[in-house]
Amino acid sequence: MRFSLLFLLFAAGCSKPDPSNFDGSMGQTAEPILIASWIQVDPSAGQDLEKNRIDFDALGGKIILVERWATWCSPCIAKIPALIDLQKKHAKELAIVSLTNESETIVRGFLEKTTLDELESGRPKERLSAALNYSVALVNEKEPTFDSYFGRLRGVPSFYIIGKDGRIERAVVGSYEIVLKEVKRLLENRKRTPPEEEKAQRLLSVQREIGTMVNKIFSLQENDKTDMRVIAAAMRRRITLLKELSELKPSSERENRWKILGQLVDLWSKSSDREKAVVLSELEIARTEMFEVLKATQAYPMSWINLAYNMTLVDDPELIDAARALKAVQNSLDRIRKINDSVVLDMAYDAKARALFNSGDIPNAIKAQKKSIAHAIPVRKKRFEAALGLYEDFKTNPDADVEEILEKRKASGFQSASVVKLALGNLRIKE
User: Fold this and answer.
1) Torsion-angle region of residue 155: left (phi > 0), alpha (psi -120 to 50) or beta?
2) CA atoms of 401 and 90, how far apart (whole Å)
3) Where do the DSSP E strands lie in 122-246?
4) What is the pLDDT of residues 257-313, one digit of tens each?
5) Phi, psi dihedrals of residue 141, rounded to the nearest 5°
């Protein structure tokens, strides 16, 4: 059942601030967030279903943890068991609400088909639809009140922590460890020290700057002008620098493994011929370990897609492992079917097309790329269409001048000419 709902978070006895001045900053009284419909409702959280709202008064001074998540987000999904435990342990003092902008079909399908033991070994084989003890709601990310909170906090999971007085205590992107520390501090009724306050404000400022730049990058990527693409690339470098300066570093073992994979690919380009043999050996080991980790942890589609890109979206032919990339893509497609999540289906087929192209199977690469376009979201469609044009060009004329075609398609960033030449060489071998 779909409603137009009012999600109210406010402190009893406080005068309501001017909503036009609200931007989700720490210390502000939490403003309402309009939601589209409820998926899961915690009956003990003081929710008035007749008025369709969560009322801070009805919560009796509870801490409120508002999470933005997605079914395709591996870190989000990995923390569901921990959120269940957190809600259970502090049921009298804490209320958790998870918000997503995905469709009702996708979210309900995910909760029905996924079991706790798939997310964490040793857990019961219980469907999430039955296991969840906190509220889940659908939102429209373009809705102004939701945008005030999460518009500049790009990435999932993201969290807002509302104190017992109805004021925003913390906004966090990604780090569940920070969330736990903040919740513990509030449960102990302890104020932040001045250094803690300064660090929290600094991190929020950095996260918002990153979010603003990511939003801008998305818009620039739609522009074919070279100078716009250069600006977008500069912004990505700025984001990397900001993360390093602000200590926004990966916190999980899996994220650290991703970082190692990226570092090894980067190290390869800076190594001597003698050193490259060692780097390649380390990269193969790291990829094998990541493959096994993703299998063991029931990884979600995007993780498999990222691994496939790591083995194909490189500029040196020696770093390509098309056969294993195809296995990674197949695992992503299997997971997409299992959890009924088509959000990243376009990227899965794009990764499949790239792996097929690198192996010299251009006809099937074209078929896969057409599927990626058929499922593409607008921000990615133009890039996928450009890739399809390249595949079709090279199928028509495998002896064409590679640099000339890349220039004609304005696709110099698609992949290096040496990698394309390898793919065409593999095509000739197959023929």
Assistant:
1) left
2) 65
3) 135-138, 158-162, 168-173
4) 777 888 888 888 788 888 888 888 888 988 988 888 888 766 778 889 989 988 887
5) -65, -15
Q: How far is residue 108 from each of residues 5, 34, 113, 137, 300, measured CA to CA in Å?
A: 19, 20, 9, 11, 16
**What would the pLDDT profile of 385-420 be if each residue is shown by its tens digit?**
888 888 888 788 777 666 666 666 554 445 555 555
Task: Centre a 10 Å sphere on the Cβ of residue 387 and count the other Cβ atoms it contains.
Answer: 22
Looking at residue 349, its amino acid is Y
Going by C-alpha positions, the residue among 32, 15, 183 that lies closest to residue 95 is: 183
Tens digits of residue pLDDT in 214-268: 666 666 655 555 455 555 555 555 555 555 545 444 445 666 777 788 888 888 8
Threshold 0.85, pTM exceeds? no
Alpha-carbon gap, residue 418 to 395, rounded angstroms: 17
Residue 63 has a pLDDT of 92
Local structure of residue 103 (DSSP, 8 states)? -
What are residue 198's phi and psi, to 5 degrees? -60, -45
Q: Is the dihedral of CA 125, 130, 134, 140 positive or negative?
A: positive
Residue 212 CA to chain centroid, in angstroms?
16
Residues 29, 34: Cα–Cα separation, whole Å:
16
What is the C-alpha radius of gyration for the chain, rounded to an integer number of angstroms?
A: 24
The Cα 16–Cα 167 span in angstroms is 11
| Structure tokens, 222 | 């739609």
Q: Could you give the 3-state DSSP secondary structure of residue 137?
A: strand
Helix (H, G, I), strand (E, B) or coil at 29: strand
